[in-house]
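Pipeline run #58 for the internal structure catalog. This entry was flagged by the ingest filter as a single-chain record with no existing model, so it goes straight to prediction. Upstream metadata was stripped on purpose; only the residue string is passed forward. Reviewer on rotation: M.T. Logging verbosity set to normal.
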Amino acid sequence: MEEHSNYGVYFIDAARMIRENLPGCHVSGGVSNISFSFRGMEVIKSARVMKKAVAHLIPFMDREREENIKKLGLSADESPYQGTIVLATVKGDVHDIGKNIVAVVLGCNNFKVVDLGVMTPCEAIIKAAVEEQADFIGCSGLITPSLDEMVHVAKEMQRVGLKIPLLIGTGLDSRPHSNTREEKKELEEMVVKKIRYNRIAKYRDCSSLTDKTTRDAFIADLSEEYEEVRQEHYESLKERRFTTLAVARTKRMVVDFEKFPPVKPFFLGRRKIVDFDLRELLPFIDWKPFFDVWQLRGKYPNRAYPRIFNDDQVGEEAKRVYSDAQNWLGRLISEKRLKANAVVGFFEAGSDGDDIQVFDEGRRVATLYGLRQQSGREHDQSHMCISDFIKPLEDGQPSDYLGLFACSAGIGAEEYCKELEKNHDDYASIMVKALADRLAEAFAEYLHRQVRIELWGYSKDESKLGHGKIPVGKWYEATDCELQLTEHLAMLPAASVSGLYFASPASSYFAVGKIDRDQVSDYATRKGMSVSETERWLSPILGYEVDD
């Protein structure tokens, strides 16, 4: 609100007057009062000044604290912070933008933040929490296995008797899933709370949990809220109806491969391109997810870029962060701080039921296991699976083709962000990571166009439009592209994208939706995995409760 704009100045003036006229009086609430002057992105931007100021003031604050301990007989163990939180992206996961935003906001609100970074083992999280005498643990993650790792952290906290709140944040999870999955584990007195890290106002939850006068009421309200969500979730399971896998397969999407015969790519095998010019990617950037990072969401009809600039509530702030982004893009490109690499492969392939068999030089080298839609389909709708887009094997031999790709625009981002964070510039670090994500997605879109036009050439009409191309001769034999997988199959660097290419005009994006037990069992058998392991990997799309 406009009337809050000068709260910080008023507080400083009032505090100065009190100090001058009432030297024996102590002033508290400085951070909370001054914070009224900052909103949204400004909190992140102001953190650099705050951190540098704190670094300068710490010696004076420590000296004053020691004097007060002696003079007033205070306990030396008394913490000057509102609370201490240990934050970490869990083992096997590398996504940390939301966690970093929360770390900044909590730090600006007088919480001591111990950030352990990414791919943090459970043992390191527990050890840090004990050593720091933490009031909370915050676990972040995006990929499916991260949920199991968070449950592992919760179990270990219970085993060692660490009864402090555990806050979990992940863009993957849904609230009903976290309630029925983690809380039904009956982790005694531990608070298992689902927090989406990108909701930066949630530091108030931490304040409520550290305040003895509000903690019990907060937990009671939270438990009541989650009990309602759980009951709604269980009721929805009762109402859900599935088509059996056998019937769903009879209703597969039928593609006329005679009318649309497979198109052979211009080369078979793998090719890579390294250090691609980032300037070529700028027209392909989708800006909406960038604004989502900063919690800038316009209301209809101003939700998408560039209409968001017209929104009454967030328009001006969106313009400012967009301007900052343009400046940072120019800097990242001119200083060559980020590198973009990609690998693309085309292989002979044929469908085999719900799976796709992949061949290289006449030899089967891989099987891609598909999942078929079982729910949410009308009577006359197909139950789709990605294998439907590939022509079936003929006498065990392929007569179609499949494309695969992986690309990154984040090579060098992690090292640069560490430099920025060392200089207390959290805003710049988050900005660089957010832009690297956008450039990676733009690279994927750019490559898709190149595949359609130049490398596979199945979109003949589009090739007449005169878009820029990467000539086939610019692609090299694929060796090392500086892309890796973690033990939980997250891509490194974090700003990376991978996927499949299908040439059939019948192919389309679709959601598998929820699946039933019969498909999970069948899928596990085809992959040679146990049902329990398969359920862990597929947990976000299971249409039933897993047996304990």
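catalog note: The CA atoms of residues 175 and 194 lie 7 Å apart.
catalog note: The mean pLDDT is 83.
status: ready for reviewer M.T.
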